[in-house]
Amino acid sequence: MLPHLSSNNTPTAPETYPLVEKGGPSYAAFALALVSLSHTPIEQRIYAAMLASALAGSGESAFTARELISLTGVRSLTTIRRALDGLLLKLSVERAPKGNGNGKREHGTGYCVYTPAQILSRRKENGSGNGKLDHLRLRNGSFERAVARVAENPLLSRREAQVALCCVEGLTNAQIGKRLEVSEQTVKFHLRHVFVKFGVKRRAELISKLLM
What we know:
- This protein has helices at 27-38, 41-56, 65-72, 77-89, 116-126, 141-152, 158-168, 173-180, 184-198, 203-211; strands at residues 93-99, 105-113.
- The protein is elongated, with a radius of gyration of 18 Å.
- It is mainly α.
- Strand 1 and strand 2 (105-113) form a beta hairpin.
- Helix content is 54%, strand content 8%.
- The protein folds into two domains: 26-129, Orthogonal Bundle (Arc Repressor Mutant, subunit A), CATH 1.10.10; 139-212, Winged helix-like DNA-binding domain superfamily/Winged helix DNA-binding domain (Arc Repressor Mutant, subunit A).
């Protein structure tokens, strides 16, 4: 069963940034940004739709894969199920029997959705499930600011955001490529775009801009 959701965890459109409110990062905004960056684009699209639906309802919802086709506009049942498998592995959703509204359970399995803060807590307790962002931890205020500033930039792609945060950790291009499972040349390509979108010319300037 889905824990009660807080009104502070307001979902945003899955295809776009920003992921945090202006006026300074909060834990809820930080969690939302970090969880969103850990999802693939299709996983985030489905997760955001599920979270928005749960928040708009009673606070407790269980979704079937077929219901999500109508909810998200994604027409492929296979795509929906693959994304749900990814969300399950990342502990963002959980399988649950689907209720029929009369206190009974229908045949088949539905999916419950967790808030970003709950997801981070579940991942910490289980020691796994963070997808490509296993390395990102809740650290100090500077790192939280960096996550918020990356999420606030409406020009960044998801991969560029990941590369930017890896730079904040002090990783080399080769280390970033290994962590994100892409080539070093791909990292350099994304990094050039990140520099342009943040108005800097080198890595040190980017790190300073994100942390200060």
